[in-house]
Specification:
binds 1-O-phosphono-alpha-D-glucopyranose, two-stranded antiparallel sheet, Spore Coat Polysaccharide Biosynthesis Protein SpsA, Chain A
Length: 294
């Protein structure tokens, strides 16, 4: 068996325009919208850190510079917090900071699809497996989705795609996989299709925005073939790579919030607020009353 190489780097595509959230996203990137008190993208970076990721590659675009600032040190702010004895706030900033030199930013330049965004990271990733995390999708789970994927990867190698079950009526919005032989915590993938026509999905297992991919995916993406929506799709490239390498699904047991949709974003705020000791009781009581009156 070939050696299973460690996953050290992660790609985060953050170039999207966020038109579904206008006017909020006119000057603020959608990845910087907050769930309780953290930007969406920070949840995803923290999930990656918990899984042992050491280097974060952001594929950005115009108007996204604030993401770069967010993952950098803010000397004046830190000094002020220190002077004022605000140690908890200071620690919260320190904990989320990637190490010096552990972030890279590259620009996608044209909105040609998720596959194209991933391909833009090829030189920074080089010849090693990497994680791909779509920042629209925020996971709520004790252990973290990517950590579970890394555990499965360390056992079976190859490529891993996280999946969750969706309402069949929603399958046309996602990448859908076909289910094969069971594995401990997942199954072998037999098929992958991006945004299947209604009624044609091979299962209800949708790709929920987390992947571990081998670098050979870049050779396939470099052909720049268009798929669903006339975009270069990562799902199509994975399907081609599956001719040469195994693909396994990690069945995510936690909750996935699609923060690229308004309802998903609101629900993420409610769910994470209910996880927080400082605001849980107030949010819970007020929500109960609100729902009773709705
Ligand atoms: C992308 C992927 C799709 C996946 C989805 C999860 O689609 O192409 O396979 O199911 O993310 O959010 P997009 O949301 O960019 O249309």
């Amino acid at each position: 068996m070939t050696k299973i190489r460690r996953v050290r780097k992660a790609v985060l595509p953050v170039a999207g325009l966020g038109t579904r959230f206008l006017p909020a996203t006119k000057a603020v990137p959608k990845e910087m919208l907050t769930v309780v008190d953290k930007p969406v993208v920070q949840y995803v970076v923290e999930e990656a850190m918990a899984a042992g990721i050491e280097h974060f590659v952001f594929v950005t675009g115009r108007n996204k510079a604030v993401i770069e600032d967010h993952f950098d040190i803010q000397v004046e702010l830190d000094d002020t917090l220190r002077e004022r004895g605000k140690s908890a706030e200071l620690k919260s900033l320190e904990d989320m900071l990637p190490k010096a030199g552990a972030t890279s930013f590259t620009r996608q330049q044209a909105p040609l699809g998720l596959g194209h965004a991933v391909w833009c990271a090829r030189d920074i990733i080089g010849d090693e497996p990497f994680a791909l995390l779509l920042p629209d999708m925020v996971m709520r789970d004790q252990a973290g989705c990517l950590s579970g994927m890394v555990d499965l990867y360390n056992k079976v190698g190859g490529n891993i795609v996280a999946v969750a079950e969706c309402d069949p009526a929603q399958a046309h919005k996602y990448g859908i996989v076909g289910k094969g032989e069971d594995l401990d915590g997942g199954f072998r993938i037999t098929q992958m299709v991006e945004k299947p026509e209604p009624g044609t999905a091979p299962s209800n297992y949708y790709i929920n925005g987390r992947y571990i991919l081998q670098p050979e995916i870049f050779d396939i993406l470099s052909k720049q073939e268009r798929g669903a929506g006339n975009e270069i799709q990562v799902t199509d490239a994975m399907l081609k790579l599956a001719d040469q390498q195994p693909f396994s699904a990690y069945q995510f047991g936690g909750e996935t919030y699609d923060c690229g949709s308004k309802a998903g974003f609101i629900l993420a705020n409610v769910a994470f607020a209910l996880d927080r000791d400082d605001i849980k009781s107030q949010v819970f009581e007020d929500l109960k009353n609100m729902i009773a009156k709705a």
